[in-house]
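Before relying on records like the one below, remember that each one covers exactly one chain. Contacts with other chains, cofactors or solvent are not represented anywhere in the record.
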Amino acid sequence: MLYALARPLLFALDPETAHEVALKFADAAGLLAPKPPACPVRCMGLDFANPVGLAAGLDKHAEHVAALAALGFGFLELGGVTPRPQPGNPRPRLFRVPQARAIINRYGLNSVGVDEFVANLRRFSGKCIVGVNIGKNKDTPNEKAAEDYELCLEKLYPHVDYVTLNVSSPNTAGLRDLQAPESLSTLLSTVKGKREQLRQKHGRSVALALKIGPDLDEEAIRGIAQAALHAGIDGIVATNTTVDRKGVAGLPRADEQGGLSGAPLRESSTNVLKTLAAELKNEIPLIGVGGIMSGADALEKLGAGAALVQLYTGLIYRGPELVHECVSACLERSRTASTASR
C-alpha cells in the first residue's frame, strides 16, 4: 500500500536516483513490513524460510541488508561485487520502459570492492540466508578471471551462505565469453578447488552457484549444464538480463545499450530453465529469475524446473507486495502437491 502511494513520486525521478531513494525508504520502513507465511525449502544444502529471493543487482554494495531481509524474502543475493573498486559506466545507465514493465541497465558492475562490501555485510546480524554475486574487474583479462573469482570467494567465505559466479552480465566486455565450454570448465574447476581449501580452513560449507545468460542456444545451454555437472557445483541461476529487444521494439528507451530485465525476459529465461532441467535431471538445483511480475509467474518458473525463484524488476513495478504474493502462491502449490500425494 505504501509503495503504491510512493511509486508515482519515484517514477518522476531519474531511475538511478529513484533506486537510491527507494532503498533508503526501505531502511526506514522495511522493518515494519508484515511477514509472509512460512514455506520452507531445502536447496543447495541450505534451509530457506521460503523459495522467493532477491536477485543480484538491487543491493550492489550490501548497504541495505537488514531492511531487505525484513520484506519477507527467503534469501538475498547481494552484489555483484568485484575484487577492486570500480565505478562502472557513466550515468545515465538505468532506464525504465514502463509500457513493457521492463528496465534496461548498463551499470557495468559498479562496485565498492570486496573489502568494503564485506565491511558493510558484517553489520547485518539477522538470520536470512545471504548469497553474493561475484564478478571479475573490467580490466582483468579473461585468462586471469579465475583469480578475481577466487579472491572474492576467499574474502566472502566466512560471511555468506552461498556465492554465485557471474559470467553472464552483458555490461562487462568479454565476460559472457566465460560461458564457453572450455573457459567455463577451467573456471569452475579452479574456483571449486579454492572452495574446498576454504571449506577445510573454516570448517563450514558455502554453496557455489553459477549465473548464466538467456541469449544462448540449446547446445550452449546443454554444454553449460554438462560443465556444471562435471565440476559438481551446487546450483545454477537462470538467467541474467538479455540484449534481445524483441519485447520492447519501438518503445521509448528500447534502443539503449545494456541488459533488459522485466516482463519481456520471462519467456526466454523460462525456456533456459526448461532446457537445463531436461539436461540436469534434478542433479543440480535451479534458481529461476527473469520477468517474475506475479505469483503466477513464480509458479511458472517452479513448473519449468526451478527450486527457488528471484525477483528484481518486478519489485520496481509492483513493490514489496510481490514478495508476499509469490510466497503465498508457492505455499498453495506446496499444499496442493502434498494433498495430491496422500
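Residues 181-202 form the longest helix (22 residues).
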